[in-house]
Amino acid sequence: MSDLRTSRTSRTTRTRLVGAATAVVLAALSLTACNDGTGVHAEDVAAAGTPATTPAAHSPSQAKSPATSPAKSAAPAAAATTGTPNSAAGTSATTSKAPAPAGKPVTCEGSNTRTVAAPLNRPVNHMLLTVTNTGSRTCYLYYYPAVRFGEAQAVPPVIEDSQPQAVVTLAPGESGYASVNLSATDGSGTNGRTVKSLTVYFEGRSDNGSVGTGAHPSLPAKGVYVDDSLKVTYWQQSMDDALNW
């Protein structure tokens, strides 16, 4: 009889211990859920000695895991790093410029320029001289053209009021201009004649006469009419300035 009572007492004690342990586990789980607002954590269940498989499968913290974030963020960084040299190379290719003309500037003359003579309808009795730098260096067009029509022994005078404020400077490929007043518009000029050839000489910086070689621009086949009122302008940087005279 005493053995039966002892057995019952032991079972009662184990039941109470199990119940108490269960209550502790439930309390721990409830406290964890309330404190961080993220639900039950698998490590809390494992620490309490209960299976963690089912809660862990639905754990919100597992769904929000940042484990894959570093891999995703690293990909754009790698792509950006890889693209940088290509981008820089593209910029370099786009912004590259042709090298500046080498050497010091020289005087414009027949060997490094091309000269064109074009008679004009307006202003009437005028001719436009266009000189283009065909060399590899910048050149200076000093003073005014010394023109010689046909077999003339002297060159015509310059219109002093046409002198520009600075020496005309021509980079390779650029042009300068001067106009020639061929004859008086009112017929008052003397010694009128038709000429079929023209030579243009270039002044040096010292203004002591022509330098280099002269130019021989073509004239119309019928020639041009000139008289003793013949005169020229200084070299000009723009065509409009040359035609103002």
Q: Topology of this protein?
A:
Elements (H helix, E strand, L loop, with lengths): L1 H35 L5 H6 L5 H5 L2 H4 L5 H27 L10 E2 L5 E8 L5 E8 L5 E11 L18 E3 L4 E7 L11 E3 L2 E6 L6 E6 L8 E3 L4 E2 L6 H5 L2
Parallel strand pairs: 1-4
Antiparallel strand pairs: 2-3, 3-6, 4-5, 4-8, 6-11, 7-10, 8-9
Describe this structure in words.
With 245 residues, the protein is of the alpha+beta class. The protein is 33% helix and 24% strand. It is built from six helices and eleven strands. The protein starts with a helix and ends with a helix.
Which residue ranges are poorly predicted, with pLDDT under 50 across at least 5 consecutive positions? Answer: 1-9, 17-95
Q: Would you list the SSEs in sequence order as H and E?
A: HHHHHEEEEEEEEEEEH
Helix count equals 6
First CA to last CA: what distance? 146 Å
Using only C-alpha atoms, the radius of gyration works out to: 50 Å
Based on secondary structure, the structural category is: alpha+beta
Share of β-strand residues: 15-25%
> Can you give the mean pLDDT?
73
